[in-house]
């Protein structure tokens, strides 16, 4: 779900701001988009209500990133019996003019998959960002 829609209280809003700052510490040229999903019925059907989704856009296509935009999805498990939410992991995808170029998931093996891989130092910075987000929520 769009980060802007998830920002319903001070605690979540503060964490969303911290996530944006953590990403920008690693990638200062990135511009945050708290509404990466369009508000149409087809898109709404695909959106996970238990996630915080933030888009990051770069000034242009980057050889180092092999993308122009990155979507960060922070996934949670919400216990239906209690008012408790637990971080499951992050899904990060890089997009170029052809669509999804690569994907990194912390839910499985923390490996980058895709036809167009970012540079090794970018991959390491992405993994560092993920570890910092885990610290933020734990």
Helix-strand blueprint:
Blueprint: H1 3-6, H2 10-26, E1 31-33, H3 41-46, E2 51-62, E3 67-79, E4 84-96, E5 99-105, E6 112-113, H4 120-137
Antiparallel strand pairs: 1-2, 2-3, 3-4, 4-5, 5-6
Helix pairs in contact: 2-4
Largest sheet: 6 strands, antiparallel
Low-confidence segments: none
Strand arrangement in the largest pleated sheet: 1-2-3-4-5-6
Query: How many discrete structural domains?
Result: 1
Average pLDDT for all residues: 86
Distance between the termini: 21 Å
Q: Can you give the helix content as a percent range?
A: 25-40%
| Count of separate DSSP helical elements | 4
As a percent range, the share of strand residues is 35-45%
Task: Describe what this molecule looks like in 3D.
This protein has 138 residues and is of the alpha+beta class. The protein has one domain (3-137). It contains four helices and six strands; from the N terminus they run H-H-E-H-E-E-E-E-E-H. The protein has helices at residues 3-6, 10-26, 41-46, 120-137; strands spanning 31-33, 51-62, 67-79, 84-96, 99-105, 112-113. Strands 1-2-3-4-5-6 form a six-stranded antiparallel β-sheet, with helices on one face. The longest helix is centred in the C-terminal third of the chain and has 18 residues, at 120-137. It is globular. The model has no long low-confidence stretch (mean pLDDT 86).
């Amino acid at each position: 779900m769009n980060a802007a829609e998830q920002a319903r209280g001070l605690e979540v809003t503060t964490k969303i701001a911290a996530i944006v700052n953590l990403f920008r510490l690693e990638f200062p040229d990135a511009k945050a988009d708290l509404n990466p999903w369009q508000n149409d019925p087809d898109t709404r059907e695909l959106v996970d209500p238990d996630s915080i989704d933030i888009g990051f856009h770069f000034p242009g296509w980057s050889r180092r990133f092999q993308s122009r935009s990155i979507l960060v999805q922070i996934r949670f498990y919400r216990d239906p019996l209690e008012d408790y939410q637990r971080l499951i992991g992050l899904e990060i995808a890089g997009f170029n003019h052809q669509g999804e170029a690569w994907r990194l998931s912390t839910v499985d093996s923390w490996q980058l998959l895709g036809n167009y891989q970012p540079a090794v130092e970018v991959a390491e910075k992405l993994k560092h960002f993920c570890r910092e987000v885990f610290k933020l929520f734990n």
